[in-house]
Amino acid sequence: MQTDSQRLQTAADQHEQMVASPYELLNQGADSLEDGKVTSFYFSRFKVYDQAFSVFNLLGTGLTVLVYELVHYDLEPDIRLILLWMIFVSSVINIFLGFVRMQAKMNWKNKKGHVTDEFYFEKVEFTLEIVILMCCPMPWFENYKIYFFNSMVDAECFYYLNEIFCLLVSLRIVFYIRTTILNSTWHSNRTHRVCSLYACEASYMFTIKSMIKYYPFTSNYTAMIILIVVFGYDLRICESPLARITSSYDFSSYFNSMWAVIVTSTTLGYGDYYPRTDLGRFVMTLVCLIGNFVVSSMIVIITNESILSPLENKVVILIDRLTLKKKMRSIAAQIITTFARMYYAKKYLDITATDQNDMFKQMKQLSIQLKLTTRQYIAAQSLGSYSEELSSGFNTLKENYKQILQIQNELIANNEQQIKRLEIK
C-alpha cells in the first residue's frame, strides 16, 4: 500500500513525462531552433553556386550580344556558328548549375527547419529558369526567318529566328538582379534568422525595400540605367527588319535606341525616333509603364531626402537663433548710435526740425525692427528647445502634484471631522 504522499509523487512524475517543456516541443517540431554555424555554411555554399550560375549566365549573354551583331550585319557565318554552339553549351551548363543551386537552397532551408514538401516556390523558380535559359540563339536555327508585312513602310520584312531569341535573352537580367539581392546584407543567413524572430519573411521584396531605404539614389539610378540599356538593346532588335529596307529613322544605331527609350520613359516624347513594328511598340509600352514607375519613385525619393532629419533640424534652428541674435546686437548698436547722434546734435549743433524728424523716424524704424527680431528670436528659441519642453512638462507635473496634495489634505480633514463626530455620539 502506498501512502498519500507517495501517490501524489507518482502522479506528478507521470504528469512531467506526459507534458514536455516548450523548448522540447520546439526542438521536436518542424520550426526547431537552427544551428547558426550549420545554416551559415549551407547558405555560403548556396551563394557560391548562385555566383557560378551568374558567371556562366554572363558568358552566355555576352556571346549572344556578339552573335546578334554578326547576324544584324550578316558577317562571319563560320564564327557565328561556333559562337552559337558555345551559347548552347553554356545554357546547358547553366541549367545544370541551376539544378545544383536549387538543391543547395533546399538543403539550406532544410537545415533551417523548413519542410521539404513545401518547396513549391523553388520548383517553379527552377522551371522558369529552364524556360528562360533555353530561349537563346540556337545553331540549327541559323537560317530560319519569320516574314511579316509592315504597313508603315508598305513592304514585307523579316526577322531572323535567332534575333527573336536574342531578344528573349534580355530576360536573364532577372538573374543578375537576383544575385545582387542574394549578396546584399539584407538577404544574409543572419537576416533570415532575425526576420524569423520578428515574424516576417526575408524575401526578395524585403531586400529591395531595404536597399531603397538606405541607398535611394543609387537604387533609382541603377534601375534607370538598366531600363535604358536593356530596353535600348531590345528596341534595336525589334526595329532591325526595317533597318534592312530603309535608312530613315535608323534604329541600327544603339545610341538612337537608347535615346528613344530615354525620351519615352521620362514622358518627353520628342517624336524624332519612334517604333514602327508591333514588337517595337510592345517593348516601348513596357518602357512607358516601367519608366513612369522609376521616374515617379525618383520624385518621391527627392522629396523624402529634402526633409531635414531631427538632428539637422536642430542645427538649422540653432544657426537661425545665432543669426537672429547677431542681428539684434547690430540693430541695438544702430539704435544707440542714432540716439547718441540725436543727443549730440540737439545739444551742440544747430539742426533743423526736418533733420530732427528724420532722426526720430530712423529711431522708430530701428525700434520696430528690434521688436520684430526679438519676437523671431523668442520664437526660434522656443522652437525645438528640449529644455523648455521639459521645464514646461515639469511645471505641469508640479501643478498637478499641488492639486493632488490639496485634495488629499481636504480628505484627511473631512475624515478627522467624521471621526470626532462619531466619538462625540
- Structural category is mainly alpha
Strand content: under 5%
Number of helices: 16
Largest sheet: 2 strands, antiparallel
Shape annotation: flat
N- and C-termini, Cα separation: 67 Å
Question: Measured on Cα atoms, how large is the radius of gyration?
Answer: 39 Å
Series of H and E elements: HHHHHEEHHHHHHHHHHH
Strand order of the largest sheet: 1-2
Question: If you average the pLDDT, what whole number results?
Answer: 81
- What share of the residues lie within helices? over 70%
Q: Please, could you describe this protein's structure?
A:
- With 425 residues, this protein is mainly alpha-helical.
- It has helices spanning 4-18, 22-28, 36-72, 77-111, 120-134, 161-168, 173-182, 189-197, 204-214, 216-238, 240-243, 254-265, 278-305, 310-348, 353-382, 386-424; strands at 145-150, 155-160.
- It starts with a helix and ends with a helix.
- Helix 3 packs antiparallel against helix 4 (77-111).
- The chain has a two-stranded antiparallel ribbon with strand order 1-2.
- It contains 16 helices and 2 strands.
- The radius of gyration is 39 Å and the shape is flat.
Record the SSE blueprint.
Blueprint: H1 4-18, H2 22-28, H3 36-72, H4 77-111, H5 120-134, E1 145-150, E2 155-160, H6 161-168, H7 173-182, H8 189-197, H9 204-214, H10 216-238, H11 240-243, H12 254-265, H13 278-305, H14 310-348, H15 353-382, H16 386-424
Antiparallel strand pairs: 1-2
Helix pairs in contact: 3-4, 3-7, 4-5, 6-10, 9-10, 10-12, 10-13, 14-15
